[in-house]
Amino acid sequence: MEPDQWLAQYGQKIEQAKRGAAEVETRLGGVGGSATSPDGLVTVSVNASGALTDLILRPGLRGEDPERIASAVMAAAAQAQRAAAGQVVEIMTEFVGDSPALEFVKAKMPNGYSGDGTDAVEPQPELQRRDTRPDDEYFTNPPDVMA
Fold it and tell me: Which residue stretches belong to region Disordered (predicted)?
């Protein structure tokens, strides 16, 4: 291979890497996460790095114990950070693939990331939890209600 040809190919690879890095930077700039406490009184939003960008405390919190409010804020922030981190992992997976670089990124997520297998399981809606067996079967073999 001629030195000029090699240099031209190398230059193309560098340009391609620069375009890919610029695309990732743009996509990561739009990453964020949001979470609301189970009672709906606290909502937290974070950016790609997990820094707080918005905090909404609803009027129903008036008169609440400050420790309870702080706990709700921290729990919602952790959920929002996991959501944002999940988006970061998706973007980086597309960019670097399953590699040591991706494992490094994952390791730097203090609250893990959504999709890491440790997500809290959402309870099923009541209609899906109902026992729909016929009465004869239900009373012959009732559910175990005492644990």
Answer: 108-147
Task: Give the count of alpha carbons within 13 A of 132, CB side only.
Answer: 4
Return the CA Rg of the chain: 24
Q: What is the DSSP letter of 94?
A: H
**Inter-residue contact 27 to 90 (CB < 8 Å):** no
Mean pLDDT for the chain overall: 85
* Cβ proximity of 82 and 32 under 8 Å: no
What mean pLDDT comes out for the span 109-123? Answer: 76
Q: What share of the chain is helix, strand, coil (3-state, %, to 5)?
A: 55, 10, 35
Is the dihedral angle over the CA atoms 56, 59, 63, 68 positive or is it negative? negative
Q: Closest by alpha carbon to 32, among 75, 83, 79? A: 83
Query: Quick one: average pLDDT of 42-54?
Result: 92
Q: Which amino acid is at 25?
A: E
Please list the residues that pair with 54 across neighbouring strands: 45
